[in-house]
């Protein structure tokens, strides 16, 4: 597999519609190995007054997913990528992670010609298995906020060193017969996220993309089990509103509102019921 | 007795932070400052009626809207030590899930007794898989943790009580 190369990414970016302008405002940093690209991007943004920074690494020694869960980061096998950007003024937490899911799905579709689905709130799946995870973090500073968007793409999975539980839930583009050029994907993601950032600053809200989200969301209409705070909920995922909130109807007919949390299992409506 | 200049300074400090409320006790005077958008007036109370003879009415506050109101209680307030005096609340800026640490296997960002500065991250509030790192915004000591790890919290819900340094 080709090595990550900041020069290749920048050259590629310059060829894109708004690429040259985007590149003037930020920086692309490539490392052989980091603890986590999110951590490096956060520190860079807290100490340097950049508009954005993209951090990539061949390897993460402490890559993580939601709530510190480790993200398998085999050297060279994935795209371990973080795009961090500054927002002037107060942070508006309006479903940015869900907008990012659509943005990344489109960038991946362009390169792989694969139609990925979204698991609420923002995992990307191929054939029901995860190929891309997104972890967003935010920090409100005195005069600005920093948004940190971490994206992990499974380009390859070394099956011998991949734990069984990961193999059961995750897949890679290579195992689906698709080759991904990581440098090209990185430049496409930087461009797409810069455009999304601009659109959000100009007033784009999740509600404007809700139809696209619903159409690609594989959670809607399914029987799901969700971990929400310290409780486990089970029921039918029946709606998503313009803020990205998921509404779950349990067996007793009660409606639950999920602002956060995670879907841990999904089954067709007429299929199996989970046993708690 | 708190000087008028001190109150002005406190109001200025409060304006510069995202805090909505500040409570302070100095001697027999209890001062509660609330931001105007919280629809509550600035209240200055003293524990002795006799203090009303002092030039409290002359207190002139910076242009704040609505105009602050001074209130002197007619009856003596209980002298019991109020553990809440001299402390401020760190509140949740959004609806979400409250986490005390960056992951289940790591130590909490802060605990009772932890010293914090304005920039200290004290917790995470997760909404839609966006992990919001919440800073203390004040300098002091955590005297109370007011929410449970993994609990759903509302906008404005108190998360910590901080004794100002």
Automatic annotation (TrEMBL), chain A:
Domain BPL/LPL catalytic: 23-201
Entries under InterPro entries matching the protein: aa-tRNA-synth_II/BPL/LPL (IPR045864), Biotin_CoA_COase_ligase (IPR004408), BPL_C (IPR003142), BPL_LPL_catalytic (IPR004143), Transcriptional_repressor_C (IPR008988)
GO BP: protein lipoylation
Entry GO CC: cytoplasm
Documented EC number(s): 6.3.4.15
GO molecular-function terms, A-Z: ATP binding; biotin--[biotin carboxyl-carrier protein] ligase activity; transferase activity
Pfam families: BPL_C, BPL_LplA_LipB
Domain of life: Bacteria
PROSITE patterns on file: BPL_LPL_CATALYTIC
Alphabetized UniProt keyword annotations: ATP-binding, Biotin, Ligase, Nucleotide-binding
ATP-binding among keywords: yes
Membrane-traversing stretches: none
SUPFAM superfamilies registered for this protein in UniProt: C-terminal domain of transcriptional repressors (SSF50037), Class II aaRS and biotin synthetases (SSF55681)
Record carries keyword Nucleotide-binding: yes
NCBIfam families attached to this UniProt entry: birA_ligase
Name this protein carries in UniProt: biotin--[biotin carboxyl-carrier protein] ligase
High-level lineage: Bacteria, Bacillati, Bacillota, Bacilli, Bacillales
UniProtKB/TrEMBL annotation, chain B:
Lipoyl-binding domain residues: 87-163
InterPro entries: AcCoA_biotinCC (IPR001249), Biotin_Carboxyl_Carrier/Decarb (IPR050709), Biotin_lipoyl (IPR000089), Single_hybrid_motif (IPR011053)
Pathway(s) the chain acts in: Lipid metabolism; fatty acid biosynthesis
GO cellular component, one term: acetyl-CoA carboxylase complex
GO molecular function: acetyl-CoA carboxylase activity
SUPFAM superfamilies for this protein: Single hybrid motif
Gene3D superfamilies linked to this entry: 2.40.50.100
Alphabetically ordered keywords of this record: Biotin, Fatty acid biosynthesis, Fatty acid metabolism, Lipid biosynthesis, Lipid metabolism
Taxonomy, superkingdom: Bacteria
GO biological process annotation, one example: fatty acid biosynthetic process
Function: This protein is a component of the acetyl coenzyme A carboxylase complex; first, biotin carboxylase catalyzes the carboxylation of the carrier protein and then the transcarboxylase transfers the carboxyl group to form malonyl-CoA.
Protein name: Biotin carboxyl carrier protein of acetyl-CoA carboxylase
Natural source organism: Ferroacidibacillus organovorans
